[in-house]
């Protein structure tokens, strides 16, 4: 009942129909740390109902809102301190997510009324050369080695590979349209830089989202008994169902085999483990002769010793990047900063050992880098900013 009430109050706030009594009730709930988990769950549910990727019309209002969020303590933090690692759960992420929901609908508000706070001169000086978030950027390499910079290409037919046409659509995606039988199969590669992402539709209708610093090597037509592609980095797949013709993704020496399903593969070389997360359908994850079957809501993690561990997981966290968010669950600072490195195209170094903290929560990927760093600083993480080089200082 309590969670339903929280969702109702947040929906009233979002719609602008709340009464003064409902507003006061929401503020009271926000002040009580005992409601932390309920509020986090409610805000997460509302976040996934929001349209992803939409931008506010009034950028000045957005900037003012960001400054007020990052410059003021909105909610008293809830902190656990189990030795020797400190885990921090702040409600800054909830405030920012809710703000993001309203930005998508053209409304602007804060969870609690606060005065606009001007950053101190030293802080303003440090962030004077802010870094914008990543966006739709990718390079398409054709079979003959020629390259097309997709974010600069016109929305039109980009080329022909055998009987397959390559088209850039109005919404900035690339689609492969195969027509008739293909005698000779050629291969293309779509690659995203750090600070880039892109969406691709393969010749069989399979849709692929590539995260930053990733690539997909694929045929321009699927012939034979399998549909095989090769992934580096991270990608989300919605596989077109073709009975009798399995879809196979090769990544970091692992084989992920499906018939028709939705799943995410995180296979960055600098991460501690490769992760395959299943949202719909079923997949087989194999490596070095070991094969594990995943069911919806499960994740397979493959470590350097080639072991495959399957467990239940929060699929929303795994695909948050695709939907325009960072989400962390007890992540250490190095995990957080690796994601920021890829999305903001920055270099992160550490002064001594990284701070022993773990973070829970999320933020929109559309925020400038300063918005993320200021929130981390409120949790006691200190930075030195030199252009695109970010040094994490001793706490």
What characteristic shape results from the CA principal axes?
globular
Task: Compute the average pLDDT.
Answer: 77
Question: In total, how many beta strands?
Answer: 26
**Individual helix count:** 9
Biggest sheet: strands, sense, closure?
19 strands, mixed
Percentage of residues in helical conformation? 25-40%
Show unreliable segments: 47-121
Beta strand %: 25-35%
Structural class: alpha+beta
**How large, in whole angstroms, is the Cα Rg?**
22 Å
Q: What's the assembly state of these chains? A: single chain
Termini, distance in Å? 41 Å
Walk me through this protein's architecture.
- It is a single chain.
- The protein is α+β, with helices and mostly antiparallel strands and 395 residues long.
- 25% of the residues lie in helices and 34% in strands.
- The chain has 9 helices and 26 strands.
- The chain has a 19-stranded mixed sheet that branches.
- Helix 1 (2-15) crosses helix 2, helix 3 packs parallel to helix 5 (92-105) and helix 4 (59-71) packs antiparallel against helix 5 (92-105).
Question: Gist?
Answer:
With 395 residues, the protein is α+β, with helices and mostly antiparallel strands. The chain is built from nine helices and 26 strands.
Secondary structure layout:
Layout: H1 2-15, H2 20-31, H3 36-49, H4 59-71, E1 78-80, E2 86-89, H5 92-105, H6 121-126, E3 135-136, E4 139-141, E5 147-149, E6 157-161, E7 164-168, E8 174-178, E9 187-191, E10 196-201, E11 207-210, E12 215-219, E13 227-238, E14 247-251, E15 254-258, E16 262-267, E17 274-280, E18 283-287, E19 290-294, E20 298-302, E21 308-312, H7 315-318, E22 325-332, H8 333-344, E23 347-350, E24 357-364, H9 369-378, E25 383-386, E26 389-392
Parallel strand pairs: 2-24, 3-10, 8-10, 13-14, 23-26
Antiparallel strand pairs: 1-2, 4-5, 4-9, 6-7, 7-8, 9-12, 10-11, 11-13, 12-13, 13-16, 14-15, 15-18, 16-17, 17-20, 18-19, 20-21, 22-24, 25-26
Helix pairs in contact: 1-2, 1-3, 3-5, 4-5, 4-9
């Amino acid at each position: 009942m309590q969670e339903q009430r929280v969702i109702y109050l947040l929906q009233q706030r979002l719609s602008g129909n709340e009464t003064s009594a409902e507003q006061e009730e929401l503020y009271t709930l926000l002040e009580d740390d005992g409601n932390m988990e309920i509020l986090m769950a409610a805000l997460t549910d509302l976040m996934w109902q929001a349209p992803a990727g939409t931008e506010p019309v009034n950028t000045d209002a957005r900037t003012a809102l960001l400054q007020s969020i990052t410059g003021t303590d909105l909610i008293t933090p809830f902190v656990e301190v189990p030795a020797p690692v400190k885990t921090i759960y702040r409600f800054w992420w909830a405030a920012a997510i809710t703000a993001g929901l309203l930005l998508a609908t053209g409304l602007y508000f804060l969870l609690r009324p606060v005065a606009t706070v001007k950053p101190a001169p030293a802080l303003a000086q440090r962030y004077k050369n802010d870094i914008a978030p990543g966006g739709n950027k990718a390079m398409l390499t054709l079979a003959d080695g020629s390259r097309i910079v997709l974010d600069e290409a016109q929305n039109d037919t980009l080329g022909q590979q055998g009987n397959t046409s390559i088209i850039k659509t109005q919404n900035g995606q690339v689609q492969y349209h195969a027509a008739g039988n293909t005698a000779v199969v050629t291969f293309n590669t779509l690659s995203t830089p750090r600070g880039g992402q892109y969406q691709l539709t393969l010749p069989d209708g399979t849709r692929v989202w590539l995260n930053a610093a990733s690539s997909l090597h694929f045929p321009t037509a699927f012939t034979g008994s399998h549909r095989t592609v090769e992934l580096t980095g991270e990608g989300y797949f919605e596989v077109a169902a073709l009975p009798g013709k399995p879809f196979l993704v090769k990544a970091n020496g692992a084989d992920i085999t499906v018939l028709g399903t939705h799943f995410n593969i995180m296979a960055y070389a600098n991460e501690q483990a490769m992760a395959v997360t299943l949202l719909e359908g079923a997949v087989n994850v194999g490596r070095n002769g070991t094969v594990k079957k995943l069911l919806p809501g499960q994740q397979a993690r493959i470590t350097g010793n080639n072991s495959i561990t399957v467990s239940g997981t929060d699929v929303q966290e795994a695909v948050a990047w695709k939907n325009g968010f960072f989400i962390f669950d007890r992540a250490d600072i190095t995990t957080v900063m690796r994601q920021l490195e890829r999305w903001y195209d920055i270099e992160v170094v550490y002064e001594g050992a990284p701070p022993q903290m773990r973070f829970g929560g999320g933020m929109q990927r559309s925020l400038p880098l300063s918005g993320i760093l200021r929130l981390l600083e409120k949790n006691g993480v200190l930075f030195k900013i030199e252009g695109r080089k970010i040094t994490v200082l001793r706490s």
